[in-house]
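Tutorial, part two.
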Amino acid sequence: MFGSIKSNFNNNWLLDIIYYNNDVFSIMQRFFIPHENFKGDYVVSFDKKLINQIKKVLRAKEGDKFWLFEGSGSEYLGQLIELSNNQVKFLLIDSRLSATEPDTQITLYQALIKADKFEWVLQKAAELGVKKIVPITTNRSLVQQISSTKMKRYQEILKEAIEQCGGAILPELFLPLSFSVAVKVAAQQPGIKMIAWEKEKDNQLITDKIISIFIGPEGGFADEEILLAKDFNIQTVSLGGRILRSETAAISAISRLIIK
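Running the prediction step on this input gives:
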């Protein structure tokens, strides 16, 4: 029967070594493919980047096997049966539920920051298992919007992060919300709601099955924003005695909430 061993290869690619009767016979890479490309026992993709990677980078041939996932939590063992310049086709021969997803469901309300730092937060949040990411604009945000081009890039960053880390659920990335709208939206969601604030000295992070956490921009949240959050029963929490950069605060909070 099929089984799997997971290992890191060159610190970049998460590979599954599939064995049959204890004999290793294939080393496989993981690929995210949208749900609409799954057709019964087959998966067909016309994604030029994926085709190029399989054909020219991996130099794969018909019969090679890969783990495929469509972002909902299941993984499928796909055998390559057709590869051309225009399409790639797999036959699905096995499936499994991912065992790598954390039990905690976290929604990250992340204040917009400089693009390179925001991309880093997206990548690491995805690797850690955040389920939803809501960019927010605040009084002190230096960035106030995300272009459609950047949204596409951010989606690609999330996809590649999940491919690399061994996850099977693609985080949902929302369009930016203003802080005032975001707190209203969060208040209507189930679970614990918290906002990291450097002036909070007593309250610590609270773990739960469902969590919403707000992380501020460079300079932190304005006092009136904290008051508004409290009006919607969003608890202020401390991340420790040091003043953290926005991107550091986000990953510090997520790590502590997920890794109990």
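Residues 1-15, 17-26 have pLDDT under 50 and may be disordered. In part three we will examine how such features are distributed along the chain.
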